[in-house]
Amino acid sequence: MRLGVCYYPEQWPQDMWADDAARMAELGISHVRIAEFAWALMEPDPGRYDWAWLDLAIETLAAAGLKIILGTPTATPPKWLVDAHPDILSVGEDGRARGFGSRRHYSFSSETYRAECARIVTAMGERYGHHPAVVAWQIDNEFGCHDTTLSYGADAAARFRRWLATRYASVEALNRAWGTVFWSQIYRSFDEIQPPNLTVTEANPSHCLDYNRFASDEVVSFNRRQVDLLRCLSPGRDIVHNFMGFYTEFDHFAVGRDLDVATWDSYPLGFLEMFGGSNADKLRYLRQGHPDISGFHHDLYRACGRGRWWVMEQQPGPVNWATYNPAPLPGMVRAWTWEAFAHGAELVSYFRWRQAPFAQEQMHAGLNRPDNVLDQGGLEALRVAQELKTLGDLAPCRRSKVALVFSYEADWLTKIQPHGRGFRALFLAFETYSALRRAGLDVDMVAPDGDMAGYRLIMVPTLLVLSDEVVARLAGSGAVVVCGPRTGSRTPEGHIPANLGPGPLQAHLAAKVVRVESLRPGADPKLVLDGQTYDAKLWREDLETCLPSRAIFEDGKPAWVADGRWHYLATWPGPELMDQVVAHTAAQAGLAITTLPEGVRIRDRDNIRFAINFAPEARPAPAPEGVQLLLGTRNLAPGDVVAWRID
Amino acid sequence: MRLGVCYYPEQWPQDMWADDAARMAELGISHVRIAEFAWALMEPDPGRYDWAWLDLAIETLAAAGLKIILGTPTATPPKWLVDAHPDILSVGEDGRARGFGSRRHYSFSSETYRAECARIVTAMGERYGHHPAVVAWQIDNEFGCHDTTLSYGADAAARFRRWLATRYASVEALNRAWGTVFWSQIYRSFDEIQPPNLTVTEANPSHCLDYNRFASDEVVSFNRRQVDLLRCLSPGRDIVHNFMGFYTEFDHFAVGRDLDVATWDSYPLGFLEMFGGSNADKLRYLRQGHPDISGFHHDLYRACGRGRWWVMEQQPGPVNWATYNPAPLPGMVRAWTWEAFAHGAELVSYFRWRQAPFAQEQMHAGLNRPDNVLDQGGLEALRVAQELKTLGDLAPCRRSKVALVFSYEADWLTKIQPHGRGFRALFLAFETYSALRRAGLDVDMVAPDGDMAGYRLIMVPTLLVLSDEVVARLAGSGAVVVCGPRTGSRTPEGHIPANLGPGPLQAHLAAKVVRVESLRPGADPKLVLDGQTYDAKLWREDLETCLPSRAIFEDGKPAWVADGRWHYLATWPGPELMDQVVAHTAAQAGLAITTLPEGVRIRDRDNIRFAINFAPEARPAPAPEGVQLLLGTRNLAPGDVVAWRID
Amino acid sequence: MRLGVCYYPEQWPQDMWADDAARMAELGISHVRIAEFAWALMEPDPGRYDWAWLDLAIETLAAAGLKIILGTPTATPPKWLVDAHPDILSVGEDGRARGFGSRRHYSFSSETYRAECARIVTAMGERYGHHPAVVAWQIDNEFGCHDTTLSYGADAAARFRRWLATRYASVEALNRAWGTVFWSQIYRSFDEIQPPNLTVTEANPSHCLDYNRFASDEVVSFNRRQVDLLRCLSPGRDIVHNFMGFYTEFDHFAVGRDLDVATWDSYPLGFLEMFGGSNADKLRYLRQGHPDISGFHHDLYRACGRGRWWVMEQQPGPVNWATYNPAPLPGMVRAWTWEAFAHGAELVSYFRWRQAPFAQEQMHAGLNRPDNVLDQGGLEALRVAQELKTLGDLAPCRRSKVALVFSYEADWLTKIQPHGRGFRALFLAFETYSALRRAGLDVDMVAPDGDMAGYRLIMVPTLLVLSDEVVARLAGSGAVVVCGPRTGSRTPEGHIPANLGPGPLQAHLAAKVVRVESLRPGADPKLVLDGQTYDAKLWREDLETCLPSRAIFEDGKPAWVADGRWHYLATWPGPELMDQVVAHTAAQAGLAITTLPEGVRIRDRDNIRFAINFAPEARPAPAPEGVQLLLGTRNLAPGDVVAWRID
Description:
Three copies of one chain form a homotrimer. By secondary structure, chain A is of the alpha/beta class. Chain A folds into four domains: about 1-150 and about 215-390, Glycosidases (TIM Barrel, Alpha-Beta Barrel), CATH 3.20.20.80; about 155-205, no CATH class; about 400-590, Class I glutamine amidotransferase (GATase) domain (Rossmann fold, 3-Layer(aba) Sandwich), CATH 3.40.50; about 600-645, Sandwich (Immunoglobulin-like), CATH 2.60.40. Chain A has 18 helices and 25 strands. In chain A, strand 17 and strand 18 form a beta hairpin. In chain A, helix 5 (about 110-130) runs parallel beside helix 8 (about 205-235) and helix 13 runs parallel beside helix 14 (about 375-390). The longest helix of chain A is centred in the middle third of the chain and has 29 residues, at about 205-235.
């Protein structure tokens, strides 16, 4: 449980560096990330390296006792590299090259660029790989940011064809898998195949699905090449990448497998403004962030890092990039930091040390103001550092009793064919997660191919491609399993299964989806459970089943059926219904749930339970009477934290 | 009165075909449409034809007694053809080629593609033209779908210049017609002229109008070439095309003149979701479709087919392509089928036999589920087949007493210069049609150059270009004529007439439009008729006239004037006002109107009157007391149909 | 105080010209603008001039005693010129050339086009420069209309590099100024620099700012070249340009410095529909226009013309180009004309003499209908002409006591980095102006580098780049100075100042902006002034200050602070708060304010005060009892005008 900070020495006069380092150490910061956008400074001209500044920066930081996370600078190829090799540029879905002038202007499929990356990473690794202060490497920065995972240029097309040849061996197999017999889309050879953009109307969904799989694999192999180099050149260091929020274009589990630690960049207010929730939520949680946005990602990236994870960039004040950029509630930077530790973070690193007075992010706050006065975020970091000393180090999170199966591929499929506007696997997973958390349950995220053993309750919000193997693991877990709509509705090729949805789940739950419909707002389905009517939304499936219904639609047809410990939901439940689903199935799984005050969340790490109040009003701390509070007080102010020992 | 189905044998194992054919026949289906997207199967490699599968399919279907409608596969040129001739691709308004990967990726102006089409159609015609089971040919599929009528490539530009040279003979005449003296747009030769896209601000409206006329003519000549070939190669067969709903980019009357039968693809729920009506309508008619969407098109295509028309694709369950895709109310597939027969359809053909488990339309229902179980639509088709046997065959529709003049060109003009957002001739025609139908009137659609003799009431919702010849035919009809706003507001060149609007109508109705304004929602005009205030919308004209006003605007100026049997409306009436217009003018025409229960529509065919309830509540059947019902009961459930004899 | 009209003789038969001229003169029109879109008629083929028609037009108008404003036709290069030199086309932000077919399809940076313009202007100047009837020249037409100020082609890129080289001398200086160390944007030479379009995410804001400055300078030099030619060829004539409303892409003050008279095109209803205000405003002022839209621009262009200004195009009836195009209230064309004279216009010229029956603007009203009958606008112009005779000529406007500092650059900066959606310096200036006008104050607009001496109250709604020199002039004025949010928040390079905002203002007002946030609608800041709560919007700054607060935010932090005669607002005030700010600071400045009836505005010219009622209801005229009215009556009908002598 350490604090870190992102620092850009190259953006400041060298005579400030020593003071910066000293002040970081004083504040309680132990780790500093540097260099991830500095290629143009490391190699000012083609082949001419300038390490002097970086040597000095590293020495200055190390001299203050700071540990260094060194970023590879491949998110920002310099202008001279782009000019020498314009083919490295990524190409948008509109077929146009995406140019220099901001960042991430490269294609993952450019072999030229991969070679250039290997060159600069090798040079960095050779120079700094054994430096004692360098404790970790961050590969690139925020893979995929600004919609850059999928590129549509000639390089991508060529590698896509090779990828397809490997996957399908014969073009006949591909034609079958994609169903190209439809609309005369038949290919005679892999060479005829293009990326699925610039079509007259929607492209073949299996074509799109494979293109997304391919693009995801490209990120994996792009990352792995740097990882492999650094494992040799800098042994013993953690290799990490900083993922993002609400971003699913590649399979983060797959990238995570090549890393030592998964990290992510947590901007609760930016994510709320841009992605997360209704206008009412955006007003209610304006300065705190929605109670589950950070937690959802904390748990997701804990899974991606197989237990080891960091916040690499923690929002320290207002950001610059959302439509509106409010300031956090005083105390909230501290609360977010404790929230991350409660979910098992090893390190929380703030972005950034000092607000830059220039360039694209000049309106992004730092721990220090541009005039180098410690800002609100800095004061709160200091407070956390002091509290950390009191609390001592905690062991990692224990395994939860509840798992939520999250599939990147499921989200690609619902983006490719939402069938009803707004159906995204990501948001259904988020709303399911939220209900679990409102019930006071800790959640482990699990990939479809992850370990499911030992859980008591497994939520599968939606998993379109459901293999026999996943069903077997779900069965083997012994858990109560709750599957949401569209689960098992697709084969790996993207077809409707021969036995219809939920496909192989029918082996355990005797229900068949015989019709699917999507419904506009205002025509949302309603359903009846225990005599009460609840709202669902957007989606309704007709089930052919002899199973008794837990809940029915208003017309009497089954909406929620169960077969022993297997449950299936034929709609997208609203929050109250989702709470009921959690309550009933947790009870069946023998799990106690906690009715938390609105806006409060609890989370256990080691033998400590933390509670945070995200509501804009004070709440009673949900701590047992008599227990000694290790942090905070029983009157939990907005944005405040309490902690107590649980065993 | 026959039932048909669209079938894709190439998408299923051959060992299913015989069973499919047998089950179709059992269901009461007599006609099967096949092959319209199968070019890549007919000609897997350039010049190498493979007819074996199609021979077998035809034989199998014929052996079950089914009649075959054979589609020419030109809506989907194969990949090899696109690769060999990339110039066949259509070009979007943005100047970019629209690529392979879905369908309709060709330009109507490509002479290369026209030759290729002639080749494949000739090959098909030679092979199957005299097959006894082949009773009809469908040319291509849904001309213009996905905004493909207008293309902007070099081929179109070259042919447009030739088209202009033919139309105008001299470039000076063109300059006069377009008014190119405005903004120095003057051309020195036809060679200087480009399509009207990629301009800095709006292009010249006469240029746009001619481009739309040209594009429409391109569709006509593209279609005619295939028709001409098949008339030779397959004499005696009906030649048809399947038109779409709410689609006006080319003149369907003109294409229809080369066909034996006009057919269209009727998706009431998809059209409601995507195109037809307010949010309130979309909720109220969610599962039934708006009561007039199908009828409007049935009557329009009956006109395009000069009395002979089919539904080629009837929605059988949820579709895949709308923003939201609800399921029809049980019974609704039957009701739509009867509605089409009531409007005079010879054939109603369902799309499609069985839901495909793959590709772009995998979420589109069929008569059968993907697992080959008869679905709800299939059950309803079976019921119609049985009812048809009871009812016996009916003669075609009789001529109506009411005509509605519909002009594709008028719609182009209002798209080019709406002047107020939302003014579309199409929707004004639809709302006028709807009022006639609410009054229980059967309607014939008539093209501006169509036969107007014998009607008692002719509605001209808007006809911007009003020629002396049309006025003469309106006059000659002896009918009460009701002209809506903007009628006669343009010359054939697209100019304001020298005597202002309504141009030549002033010979019969002494009123002149001296000012025009469009008004945002909330500032809609109100008008007073018989002491009552009614809503109009969007549009208001100031009339200079000595005629007495039937209705006035709130400021006392004339809103509805009449000169004997000639009426002119200076605004876009709201529904209640439109009902009043219909009531008054029908009375003047000596027509009795029927106050139908909300959501119910009636329509006569031969000597039978049908009534359908589109409302979500039950309604009393509008049948005379004592009359014997041939179908249904007097309590008309939602989605139910009744029929009785009227003479 | 003269009336003019825009006339297109080339669009009408020559046999109408003499009658047109005679009728203009009869109506009281003295000035006629012609020829500004007629290049293709002056030079029908490359190098072949045809002056005959223009000679005749000029002679015909002159013979009727009309004075001629001759337009250079460079807004509409002919087709042959575009075909010969396609490089003259402008290039959109999307990288695509913007083609022929409408107007303004040229790049200001094309040296080819600049040479062609010099050629045609020289030819015109040589032929007509000494014609006695030619009293003025209009350069081009509406620079920048249809977003054409910024172009992104190779010509612009090359000239931008030269502009940068001049500004920065060394690329190192540029790298510092732009902060290119951020995200490895460092340039090694000016040759590497591109326009800031087509980037993956937002481009560097200093890069964007310089590109906007460059583009503005391009307009200045483009205009100047024509001005310089005409000063030689046509000495003694006024040289003018017609600017637009709510358009800020170039610095109009800078262009104005090369002109004799600033003119603008005033379309109050079009501007209201397209740009100006809430839906409620758009309904309330539907037929009158918002009370401050015209006045704001009148005062702005009076400043751009250093006192001399005209309305070159006055809306005469419904226009064609807004989303909805209502007709003006009867009387409103007269009221707008008087409003312009009240604000000091020398000339009000109507657009256009007669509505054209063809081409893009065929739905745009004129003084005459297309059938050559005088229209409502014509009747009102006639009335003004008669009233002008009664009233006699008035001296120009006197210097106001209130100045509003308006900065084009500030608006570029808030467009580049709004930070919160909707923050535009333009609209903050407009709302500030509106409050001053509601208080009955006449306003002078002043450029940041303008003369500030002698004002009692200077409003600086926002001036992001605040130089020491501007602060010195504000200080030297002795005025009460009111600075709005973001003032002084940027250095000329676009950086945050080293001492933070409001930068150099801190020398006079001891407050520092230590945090900035933007807030979505619904989370708008509220503040308390004299115990009352007021709404602000969108923006909030945290001030570090020991100054007492005039108003505080609801949490007690300072929202409005003052230090003697210097004021600073830390938010965007709502209208009621803006009224309070005006009331308090006007009182401090010793200015009396007038509580005007809602919708009424007053404005003094010479010794006459005019009042106009923009409300849709009648209002009492705000004239002192007993004073003699020179125009109008004491019951001020909607759209009516009164005037009386004030000294």
